[in-house]
Amino acid sequence: MISFCILYLPKDTECHCSLHHCQSTCTCFTSMNSNWHGLIVFFSLHLLLSGDVELNPGPMIDDQPDIFLLRKWLEPLVDWQPFGLLLPGITQQDIAMIAKSALGIETEHQSQKLILYCKWINKHPEAKWRDVLHALTVREETELAQTIKDKLHEGQCIGGGSVNVATCNSVGVYNKEPVSDLVKGNPNDIFRSHSDKLTDAVTTNLYRLADALHAKGLIPLDTKRDMYSVSGDNELKKAGKLLITLQTLMKSSQHPEQYLIDVCHVLVNQQNQALTDIATSMMKQLGKHNYVCIL
Q: Which residues lie closer than 8 Å to 142 by C-beta, 6 or more apart?
């Protein structure tokens, strides 16, 4: 690929650009008046339209890793747990929770690795490919580390598209297709079919769940306040009211499937096995095997 540079030279100044040394195509011009900014814009547009300018280079070592590339490039990795503990922000508790989970996609081993990557990106937004290389080096996965380092230097693969940080939130990663394309069942029906199990599970985790739902903008402050009421209803009845509120808000939402997915994410993030199982079941009914839900 040919690279370009634009040199602005004051009036009556010669250009001494050597293509042999700079290995680039250099566009030089001299300023005849004060309107030289327009010339820079003109030449910039000319270069962009020429097609010789690299607009989307591959990932760099200090870039945040793309989930799709982590999944692809770390496929040979077997001992994911000790590797995961070396990633900034990942704790032993995270590893233990991930080890208990499986997504029903591919093998349990591969799905747990994918959960790890998503969890890491969520907990540590400053994550870099450099962290991955460091963890691999400490684990003496030198060949794999070198392979990834070579790919980063080559810039041969662009991650945008499959699964990236834009689709990775505090508890989940979606497939590259829009959520509406993944939905196989009616979200309201799915939620209703799980409401009996949800009532019992929510009761034991009512206040933390109400806090989390409100923090994510999924329930109004009044609903959260009702959960903390010291008089009147017991916790079982409050849990029932909370579920009614969720279903009502889901029905009124312009994107009910997305609302349910967001609720599932909050449920999973409570690190309660019953809530996790229910949320996973609902996510499967929404997207079958084309979704990823992480802790």
A: 136
